[in-house]
Design goal:
It is built from four helices and three strands. By secondary structure, the protein is an alpha+beta fold.
Length: 125
């Protein structure tokens, strides 16, 4: 499986070490749900060069072995988040606020508002 990213190589490589990453394992789970067994899951960075970065049990395309319990943890986290949303809880808690700079929804997101509330609470206002 390949997900094309218009990102620089280092940003794509950083995905390999992101413990909060959900997209790649969810794609793998979706493929399994459809009865497929992909050889791996790769991001293909296409900005300022071409580089495959990803996971593969066989080392396909230089992929690394997926973390232990990768798919199981993604499934559990997804079900937990869906349960919270269904219960009406939709907190603004990005796993990594550094990624907000690249988010397409940053102009309408509530992260800034939530940050101001946190700062006000800390200052005792």
């Amino acid at each position: 499986m390949i997900d094309y990213k218009y990102s620089n190589v280092q940003r794509v490589k950083n995905k390999l070490d992101d413990p909060h990453l959900m997209q790649a394992p969810l794609y793998m789970l979706a493929a399994q749900h459809l009865g497929k067994r992909p050889g791996g899951m790769f991001y293909l960075g296409v900005k300022a060069g071409i580089e495959y970065v990803g996971w593969s049990e066989s080392g396909l395309l230089g992929g690394i072995t997926p973390p232990e319990q990768w798919l199981e943890n993604a499934r559990a986290n997804t079900l937990r988040l869906v349960g919270e949303m269904r219960a009406g809880r939709v907190d603004v808690q990005p796993a990594n606020r550094d990624n907000c700079t690249f988010c397409d929804a940053r102009d309408v997101c509530r992260v800034k508002s939530a940050l101001h509330v946190e700062i006000a609470k800390e200052e005792g206002a």
